Amino acid sequence: MMLRVKELRNIFPKAPSEIAAFIFVICIIPTIYWFELCVVIPSFYPVWSVWYNVHFICGTFLMCNITANFVAIVCVDTSVKGILLQSTLQPKWHFCSVCESVSPPRSWHCETCNTCIIRRDHHCMFAGCCIGHYNYRFFLAFVTHLFIATVYATYFNSYFMWEIIDFQAPMALLKVVFPLAMVAFGIDVSESQLCLILFLVNIMGMLFMAALLAFHMNLIWHGTTTYEKNHRIRDYDLGWKQNFKDVIGENWILACFIPFAQLKLPCDGIHWNTKCMWQLERPKNR
Fold it and tell me: What is the pLDDT of residue 286?
C-alpha cells in the first residue's frame, strides 16, 4: 500500500500552541538521548565497554524508531484530499458542509486541519496533525517506543540522581518540586539541577505515555475511535485480533522493529466491515 505524503506547506503546525509543543518534542527527545548516553550511562560503565555498547545500541534503536515514527505521523496524509469519493449518500456516509463533499464512514472533519480525516481518532497537538487511518500505526509505535525508552531511562536516572543530589540538604525539596524555577531565578544553575530537570521531564513523559498507551490500547481492543467510544458506537468491533490488524497491519511483527515496513492494512479506510458483516463472512472464509 503506497502512502500519500503531505505537501511541504501542510507538514508543519500552524497554531502557536502547536508550534511550541512541536518544537518542544523535536528538541527534548534528542536532548534526553544525549543525556542518557553521554552523561548517565558513562557513570555506570566505561565508554565503549561491552555493557556501554549494549546500552548504546538499545538506546539508539529506540531513538531511531521514535524519530522515524514521529516523522511518519507528521508527513503521512490521512485526509480525504486527492481520494475519489462517491457523490451519493449511502448508509453510514455523511455530508460534510465544510468540505462540501460526501465523507466515508468513520471519517470526520477537523477544524484545525481544515479537512475530513479518514478514520479520525484525534488531533495531536504535539505533531500538529490528525491521527487517522494511515498514520495511526506510526502514532501507536511512537507512543510504545517512547514509553519503553522513558521506563528504560528512568531506571538508570533514579540511581544516577540519588548519587548527585543531596536530598538531606535544606533546599533539596524545593529543588525537586520547583526545579525550573530554581534555574530561572538563578538560585541554582548547577549541572546537577539541570540533570534534575531532565530527570523530571523524563518521568512526566513516562507517565503521560503510559496513560496514552493504555487509552489507545483499550480503543483498539474494542475496535473504536475516540469519537466512537464517546458515542458508544461498537459497529466495527471485529474481535481484538482483527481490530489490531486493522490498525497495525498484517505484518505487525516487522512494524514493531522497522518503522517504514510496508503498511499492509486490511481495509482501505473508505469501506469498512461492520460486526454484522464480519460475523456473516467468517463462516464463508473458513
Answer: 47
> Of residues 75, 116, 124, 130, which has the active-site annotation?
124
Per domain, the residue ranges of the chain are: 8-285
> Catalytic annotation on 58?
no
pLDDT tens for each residue of 98-115: 988 899 999 999 999 999
Give the span between the Cα atoms of 263 and 246, in whole angstroms. 11
